[in-house]
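Memo to structure team: turn this sequence into C-alpha cells by end of day. - J.P.
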Amino acid sequence: MKKKISIYAVLIVVICFMMLYRLDAYIMKPGSAYDVSKFVTVDSKEADSEGSLSLMTVAMQQATPFSYLWAKVQKYQKLMDIEQVRNPLEDDEEYNIRQLKLMSDSQFNAKYVAFQRAGLETKVLFNGVFILNVLDGGASDGILKAGDEIVEVDGQRITSQQMLVDLLKPKQLGDKVTIQFIRNEEQHQETITLQEIPNAQEHRAGLGISYTESKSIETNPKVTMKTEDIGGPSAGLMFTLEILDQLLDEDLTKGYAIAGTGEMLIDGSVGRIGGIDYKVIAADRDGMEIFFAPDDEISQEMKAKYPELESNYATAVKTAKEIKTKMKIVPVKSVDDAINYLKQLQPK
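Reply from structure team:
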C-alpha cells in the first residue's frame, strides 16, 4: 500500500513538473481578431460602420515541458528561445514596458497619420526621454527604472533626445548629474554619479540606460484609445484606419469584416511585423473577409544573410493557400494603399 502511495506521489510530482515548470522558451500560436472600434473613440463621432476593422494578435506563452513537447508536433505553433522574444539585457518587467511603449508609439503615429490624411491639424508635444532599460552595474542601477521619463538634467528642461546626449557627452567618470524624472505621474529628483557604461564598445561615462523619445499628440476632435492589455506596434495600421473611418463621413468598411496588421510609421508607410502566418490563421478562424498584409521589401543584404526570409505579404499568401481560406489577402506598403483599396471596394 505504501509503495503504491509512493508511486502515485512521484507521478503527481512528475505531472506537476511537466505542466507547471517554466522553461526559457516561448510558444507562439494564432491569437484572435479584435474589433478596433471597441478600443478607439473619436469625440463627437460614432463608430457606426456597417462592417468592422479588426486588429490581429498572436498568443505568446512561456513553455512548460508538456506544452513544449506538444508544440513540437503542432504545425501552427512555433517554439522560440527566450533571446528571440526578449532583449538579453532586459528583464520581464522591462520587456513588458518596452512592448507597451511600442504600442504607445503606434497610437501616436496612428493619430498623426489619420488626422493628416483627413486634412486636420495636430499638435505634437515632447514630454521627455523615456527609459527602456537600466543596465545592471551601471550608474543608474537601483535609482532609475524602465518606464521613468527624464524631464530635466542639472536644471535644464530636456526638449529633445539629442539634448540629453549633448548634455552628457562632455561629462567625465565621477561627475554628478541631477536628474528630474516622472514615475507613476509623480516627479522625483536624484543625483547620479556617472560611471563607465557596462558592455559599451567604447569607454565613456554615462547613466547606463537605453532610452527613446516620449511624445504626445493633441487632436481636435480628441481621440481616446484604451489598449492596456495589448503590447507591440503591429496594430498601428488598423488603429489608423479606424480613426480615419470615424473622422470621415463615409464608411470605409463597406460592410466587410476587415482585418490587418502592420506597424504604422510616421510617414504613413506600413512596417513589417512578426507572426503574420498565425495572424492569417486567426483572422480566417474569426470570420474575416479581407486581410491587409505589409508588403515589405527584403534587401539583397538581408536575403544573403537569411536566404529563407520573405515579405510579410508573401508569407500571408502562402499561409492563406495552405489553410484554403476564401479571405482576400491585400498587400499594403502604406496606409494610402489600404485607403485606396477600401475606397474602390464595392459595398457588400
